[in-house]
Design goal:
This protein is mainly β. It is built from two helices and twelve strands; from the N terminus they run E-E-E-E-E-E-E-E-H-E-E-E-E-H. The radius of gyration is 16 Å and the shape is globular.
Length: about 190
């Protein structure tokens, strides 16, 4: 049975799971009634950050335009353009044993592609979640359901995996931003 988290909760991933290294971070969502004429194209991304909370360089940003980190530690499995169907809409693989020593946290985000042009925001999205699964056993470890707390936001920092005293932990963040992917990239130090 996975641990179900609330916003702001932190839980250890590795303390109760010795030897855990390969993770699947799945993100999913549904759209509410919407007749704007466009599909909802939500995009999951990962920012590999140093101790200062920023990327060390632009290659530390894994998204639909850069599907794998050079270390092999983080790999995006591909862009889902519509979010149709059950289960995870996008998945990011993480190998904790391959995370470079200068990376302290990996932030997972979801943005709406061309949100401003399409007149879309997270107020039109429901059932958004993130969950972390042990890739070796298929066991779901944690799950965080975001709820319906968003309205005009076009980007969300959903959660992060971070190092703390030699173990890996997960933090359920759920913070929304206006300005989409551009605003997130600026926040995490990516040159855009």
């Amino acid at each position: 049975m996975p641990i179900s988290l609330q916003k702001g909760q932190k839980v250890s991933l590795t303390k109760g799971n010795p030897g855990l290294s390969k993770l699947l971070v799945g993100l999913g969502w549904d759209t509410n009634q919407y007749d704007g004429g466009y599909d909802f194209d939500l995009d999951a991304s990962a920012f590999l950050c140093g101790a200062n909370g920023k990327v060390n360089n632009d290659a530390d940003f894994v998204f639909y335009g850069n599907l794998a980190h050079s270390s092999g530690a983080v790999e995006h499995t591909g862009d889902n353009l519509t979010g149709e169907g059950e289960g995870d809409d996008e998945v990011i693989r993480v190998d904790l044993s391959a995370v470079p020593s200068n990376i302290e946290k990996i932030a997972f985000t979801v943005t709406i592609y061309e949100a401003q042009e399409r007149g879309q925001n997270f107020g039109q999205v429901s059932n958004a979640y993130i969950h972390v699964t042990d890739a070796t056993t298929g066991t779901e470890i944690i799950r965080y359901d975001l709820g319906e707390d968003f309205s005009i936001e076009t980007a969300i920092v959903v959660g992060e995996i971070y190092k703390n005293n030699g173990e890996w932990k997960f933090n359920a963040i759920g913070s929304g931003y206006e300005g989409g992917l551009y605003a997130l990239c600026k926040s995490f130090g990516v040159n855009v």
